[in-house]
Structures are given as C-alpha cells and as structure tokens.
Amino acid sequence: SSSADVAFVADWESVYYHGVQAAYGGPGAYMGINYVANELKHAGLQFDAYSFADLDNPALQNYKLYIFPQLAFMTPEKLALLNSLRKVGKSFLFLGTPGWLTPNGQDAESIFRTTGIQAEILHAKSSVTTTLTDGSVMDYFEKPSEIGWKHSPVLKITDHQATLLGTVEL
Questions:
Q1: How much is the pLDDT for 159?
Q2: Distance CA 75, CA 119 (A)
C-alpha cells in the first residue's frame, strides 16, 4: 500500500515515436520522463511510478492525480482507460503533446479526446524556452542556445476556455 495521492504514469509505447536524441546522454523521450520524475522528487511530491500498460490494474486506480509526461501515442484502448478514470472523478496532468499521434497518424481531434482541450497541430519547430504569462522564462536546459534544440510538432491551443500559462517561440 502507499500513502501517495499521485500516480506518475510513463507510456513506454509513446517513447518509440520520439525521434529526438538528447545532447546529454540519451533518447529525448526517456529523458523527458526521467527529468519530470526527478523534478517531482525535488519538489517533495510523494508519488508512485507506473507504466501505462499496468494502469488497468484496479489497485492502481485509487489516486487523485495522474501525471502523464509523454503520452503522445493514443489508441482506442488507452483512451477507454483514461475515460474510465475520468468517470470516477480522477484528475490528469498531461505534459508534451498528449494524444497527437494515433494508429492512423497525427490527429488534432485525438488531442481533444485525450485532454478535453481543443488544439491545432502546427508543423513547425519551437524553441526549448517557454515564456510564462507573468514574463518569466523557463528553459529546459541550463544553456539551451548551446544545444540548438527545436521541438516539433507544436500544439497551438485554440480552446477559448483553456488558460494560457506560457508560449514558445517558433
């Protein structure tokens, strides 16, 4: 048993759809998962870590919040599992490009079905620096200009009910 209210859920199937190789030692999607978990630990958040493939186990469905750091590849089966958790009042935090890729290719409607937020897929590349709405800047790395990374695809949030927290430069 665990006293954690948060489940950190890595989707290892989505990792295969990330073609990025990181400048600091490994595939970008793995790093994205590991970096997020590391930051959560530094923030003092108590959480349990799981694979999405195990999420249908009833013992893993007692958390208040589910964090999905790299849930890019969405299937009907995964969506059904998310919807079953939604129906019982569970909350989700999605990072990256949740649900943008399906067995039929890129799909903006899948993003909406996954997150509940209307978005558009931009076929452009963004910087790795995010400017928050309060004017502060958040970099993924200590010296992003030295890496020269660009992220793609870029999601443009078109949902008027969503609250914009930050933007990236294209």
A1: 94
A2: 18
In this prediction, residue 15 has a pLDDT band, given cuts at 50, 70 and 90, of: confident
Burial of 78 (0-12, 13-18, 19+ CB in 10 A): buried
Mean pLDDT of the chain: 84
Question: How many Cβ atoms from other residues are within 10 Å of residue 108's Cβ?
Answer: 15
- pTM value is 0.83
Measured distance CA(130)–CA(141) in Å, rounded: 11
Under a CB-based contact definition with an 8 Å cutoff, are residues 56 and 10 in contact?
no
Alpha-carbon span 168 to 129, nearest angstrom: 6
Q: How far apart are alpha carbons 159 and 116 in whole angstroms?
A: 9
Model pLDDT, residue 19: 58
To the nearest 10°, report the CA torsion of 86, 34, 12, 157: 50
* Single-letter code of the amino acid located at 163: T
Question: Which residue matches tokens 């509940």?
Answer: 116
Residue 63 pLDDT greater than 50, yes or no = yes
Beta strands 91-94 and 65-68 are: parallel
In DSSP notation, 85-121 reads HHHTT-EEEE-SSTT-EETTEE-HHHHHHHHS--EEE
- Write down the residue that tokens 């970099």 correspond to: 139
